[in-house]
Amino acid sequence: MNLPNKLTVFRIILIPVFVLVVMFGGDASVQVGNATVYWRLVIAAIIFAVASATDWFDGHIARSRNLVTNFGKFADPLADKMLTMTAFIMLVDLKLAPAWVVVIIVCRELAVTGLRLILAENKGQVMAAAMPGKIKTTCQMLSVIFLLIGNFYYIGTILLYVALIFTIYSGWDYFHSSWSVFKGSM
What we know:
Elements: H1 3-24, E1 29-32, E2 35-38, H2 39-64, H3 70-93, H4 99-123, H5 131-148, H6 153-177
Antiparallel strand pairs: 1-2
Helix pairs in contact: 1-2, 1-3, 2-3, 2-5, 3-4, 3-5, 4-6, 5-6
């Protein structure tokens, strides 16, 4: 297993660690300005940030060292979706993100994943992430981090809605550019 794939697996392993810290990390807190900062959520944000950083590193290393593998093509986007969807579901549970926003994000992720599978099966294409999708992912990841850290809730909320806009736009963009795969099948 090459280094990029190890980073992807490490990201997947961090998901249950993140969940356990959010759920059972204790209620120790400190008052910072008007916000109460819970240490378990700060630690969860750090875990999430480390896991998110592995997304950039594994892709960069794989491309720069020509270490792109079928496992990486499959597992990397899956790990990203597992990580962000888990985090958003936990944010709903913590009442830090509206459920309707998370539902839209999760539905888009599932729909685009399905589209990727159809394209790979029918046309042998791997649908690369376009710039709106990369902006979406970056905004999603940053929103989770800022929402978890109490003092930055408003920044996290703004980033969450920016992520929502790019979630909808990039989903539409992927389907619009790949609509030919559905011709004659409806």
